[in-house]
Amino acid sequence: MTGAPDWAGGLYDGKVRLPVGHLSRITPEFQALLAHELTHALIRAKAGTSCPRWLHEGLAQHYQGGDLGEAVASVVDASGETSLADPARFYALSLARVEFLIDRHGTTRIMQLLEALKTHGDYAAALDDALGLEPARFDHDFVAWLKRQKR
Q1: Among the listed residues 103, 150, 151, 101, the one whose alpha carbon sits nearest the alpha carbon of residue 130
Q2: What is the pTM assigned to this prediction?
Q3: Taking all residues of the chain, what is their mean pLDDT, rounded to a whole number?
């Protein structure tokens, strides 16, 4: 796929782009990739261009069947501190943040957050409008939740 990083299985750039040239059957891996890229398209329709990258990728991973246990293990080191030493950790942290949102607020409120992002065009305002949280409080609550998941 032109324009996609080497590690990417698909791409959403306003269009869902998937490598289908040699596809002879629909595999579970292809279904997961399709779910991931279609989620990006749905987020764009709901939130416009104001959705933070972590929320985009976390939701896409969630709906492709991402594994929270693997995500938590890769973003929390032995001391319990979160880290983003490589791109894989960004994706893991994104999934963990989305799973936290789902656990605390449910998917309906996440949809409200996406709508608020489109309305406000600003993450902090949307977070306050949809969830009644300031970004610093969200981050604090998330880190505490993430540490409990590691146990």
Answers
A1: 101
A2: 0.82
A3: 83
- Scan for tokens 């896409």, then name that residue: 60
What is the total residue count of the chain?
Answer: 151
130-150 burial, b at 16+ Cβ within 10 Å, e below that, comes to bbebeeeebeeebeebbeebe
Contact criterion met (CB below 8 Å) for 147 and 96? no
pLDDT digits 0-9 by tens, 55-78: 999 999 999 998 888 777 777 654
How far apart (Å, rounded) are the C-alpha atoms in residues 18 and 1? Answer: 7
CB 126 within 8 A of CB 120: yes
Quick check: 87 and 57 in contact, CB under 8 A?
no
Helix H or strand E encompassing 11: strand 11-12
- In the prediction, which pLDDT does 145 show? 92
